Amino acid sequence: MSLSKEEKLYIDAYRNMLRIRLFESKVLDLFLKNYIRGPVHLYLGEEAIAVGVCSALQKDDYITSTHRGHGHCIAKGGDVKKMMAELLGKSTGYCKGKGGSMHITDMSLGILGANGIVGAGMPIAVGAGYALHLQKSNQVVACFFGDAATNQGSVHEAMNMASIWKLPVLFICENNLYGISTCIRDVCRLDDIAKRAEGYGFSGITIDGNDFFQVYETTKTAVKKIRQNGGPILIEAKTYRHEGHDIGDPEVYRSSKEVEQWKQKDPLLRMERDLLDRNILTQDIIDQMRSQIRKEIDQAVQFAFDSPEPPKEELLTDIFVKEGEL
Amino acid sequence: MREITFSQALNEALREEMIRDEKVFLMGEDIGLHGGAFGVTKNLVKEFGSERVRNSPLSEAGIAGIAVGAALLDMKPVVEFMFIDFTTIAMDQIINQAAKIRYMTGGQAKVPAVFRTQGGGGTGSAAQHSQSLENLFCYIPGLMVVMPSTPYNAKGLLKSSIRNLNPVVFIEHKLLYTKKGDVPEEEYLLPLGKANLMKKGRDITFISYSRMVHVALDAADQLAQEGIDVEVIDLQTLSPIDKETIFQSVQKTGKCLTIEEDCKSSGFGAEVAASIGEECFDYLDAPVRRIAAADVPVPFAASLESEALPDVDRIIRTTKMMNS
Question: Which residues 146-175 on chain B approach chain A with CB closer than 8 angstroms?
Fold first, then answer.
């Protein structure tokens, strides 16, 4: 089967979406078996956004992430072994076990960090954009945030600053309808959050965040514009989380009917059907891919289980850069 | 040696570091043509342009976040908050982000940003423009806190703060900007984390920082005429604190008075006193005492403000009591 460059990219994207799906499902399983401490926010159901955006970025572009960040990390090329080890609080994890789920970072891949403070990644992304602007670089920063973050003051400040200085920042609002239990309709008068961009003097567009192709094409166009003429641009990707805000959320604020309706629009299944229809993938290849990724994730879990906990001597390291370090 | 003002010394530090390292850039409110509310960035926009001396909107959280994000990309931002009172709006970025990113990422990232600001009372600026909030930052692991007292140490410490690879909160005092002092023409740096012995003495140690160093020195001069020989230490860096210099002095004098402008309860002197209690108890001839501001929002009226802030008389009275 001879495939075009774009078709190969779609296959890689599908593989990454599947990787996120299976990784997060495994995390859910491990959490319920008490292997993971602290809150965990799963990306299940939102896979098309992280992968659609990151597929349209260059390798050396940057991202900032959120508390719901596992998907962003995998989409940008993160190592599932180091992620799993971090989630289990092991010294081989991305942050040597000092950060956990909400702080996974890979500076070498341009992942400037997940963030436990809603909205805090926005000014940081704009600062990264300011650095790129001063460095006269062609790179961009993709800044992920949720619908609830848009009501933070820091987000207002960040969007305005990115706009007045035309910084190379792509804002991606993952509108999954709820900030914990609060529906965005109750805390925002606009139907589309993308309209807020106009108030800051740049363009915003609302898309179906469960459609990989739409996310990918929109991001590709936006990033091209930003590289040519500066930014920022806001993409609002409408989506839905299949699980609660975090594992253990009783989900009293939404009906099972609503959840089921959204699961009909599952981004992974949609992409799968599409690639099968277009003969880019076959069921055999998909099955093969699935078992490969399962194996990869099982190995990551084994790696995490086998890894040591951080030794007590690690407690007071990494607070400051010491002279001679780095 | 030539004399220049505190704000000129800071201006020279910024200028020299901007020439030395093109990664250094400034951002803050009215720091461009206006030169900053206290003139510290005067003329820098003419020399370095508006990209590197960036006038910002009134967006303290945004300014702080930009410093963090740019620092993650290997830049050296030096951002200005016009008043320390306004840093409260930027606290998430300073406390939750800048201070913690290195630790949370297991040492992957560094945040070499300087958060410059000024604080302190004495100008009738009232409760939201006169605070001494240094201890808020000292409490946070991962931040360095530097408070200069003279043009000489202001310049040397700011240059070191800019070169340091950690987040530094650099707090100036609004009443010091016009103070003149000796500053060498040639380049120099002063180490962070080191206190400065301003005056040697045998009878009692005064531990102070920022503007209160001058009040402490005035009191020490007057006390000398009455036969009390005071040793005066200027901490220069509050975090990490130079305990070695403090302990050496207290072990010699056996008495210690902390002199600071922040509120007394849970103020910086409490940390100094407790550390001395833990490490030098056997050397003490009297309990450590604290001269600090009253536990009150800084009042507007001159009569009330001067009552709230420490002065020479209170230092002298307390010292005599400790020596009697």
Answer: 164-166
A124·B141 Cβ contact <8 A: no
| The overall pTM is greater than 0.90 | yes
CA distances in angstroms from A198 to A195, A212, B294, listed in the order given? 6, 25, 49
Touching check for A315 and chain B: CB below 8 Å? no
Gap between the Cα atoms of A324 and B101, Å rounded: 19
- Contact (CB<8Å) B106/A99: yes
A316 touches chain B (CB under 8 A): no
Mean pLDDT value across chain B: 98
Which superfamily does A5-304 belong to?
Thiamin diphosphate (ThDP)-binding fold, Pyr/PP domains (3.40.50.970)
Q: Which residues of B are marked as active site?
A: 129
**Structure confidence by residue, pLDDT tens digits, B6-39:** 999 999 999 999 999 999 999 999 999 999 999 9
Domain boundaries, chain A: 5-304
Is CATH 3.40.640.10 what the domain over B196-323 is classified as, yes or no?
Answer: no
Helices (H), B34-107: 44-52, 60-72, 91, 101-104
- In percent, the amount of chain A with pLDDT more than 70 equals 99
Check A128 against B72: CB less than 8 A apart: yes
pLDDT, tens digit, for every residue of A294-305?
Answer: 999 999 999 999
The three-state secondary structure class of B118 is strand
- Which fold, B3-182? Rossmann fold (3.40.50)
Identify whether the C-beta of residue B201 lies closer than 8 Å to the C-beta of residue B231. yes
Of B152, B73, B75, B86, residue with least CA distance to B116: B86
